Predict the 3D structure of the following.
Amino acid sequence: MGSKFLFAAAALLVATPAVGAVTVLGNSSARLCYEAAEARSSPNLSIIRTCDEAIREEGLSDYERVATLVNRGILKARLGHLDDAIADYDAALNHDPNEAEAYLNKGFALLHVPDAAQQARPLFDTALEKRTRRPELAYYGRAVANELTGQVRAAYEDYRQASLLNPSWRDPKDDLARFSVK
């Protein structure tokens, strides 16, 4: 059971346009970083360098800096650099503790760390409390965390909520099909 969910969480991280990218407008390196985080394609190291350049050299507003940290974290997570991704999410939260997408993405990153599902769950709760732009992903991530920690009923309810929020998304439906309700 556990390996299926880690695989599902890994597939989700790669398959979704972004777990929770934060929009950056304009024509800048920060915008290119955002577009890469939103894209379905696998990132490469050159786009990470573009994000680095935006953070280091561009006169970003506080919002743009936080957004770029979250977006760079998404790209690092997709490359499997989980510690670096988590560091970016933490840096974003140090700048803005109300950035819901940083909590959401950190939760997904932790689902890929052995024995960290218990730590991931409250991050999804916080993402929901702070009104993430992608609540269906927060419910799905929390469902995975719940199932990995043996909270099957809560997992079922969260998969169900993710499916209700995004009826065209197959993953929650597929996961719900594994349950038998008595």
About this structure: The two ends are 20 Å apart (CA to CA). The longest helix spans residues 62-78. Residues 114 and 158 are 22 Å apart (CA to CA).
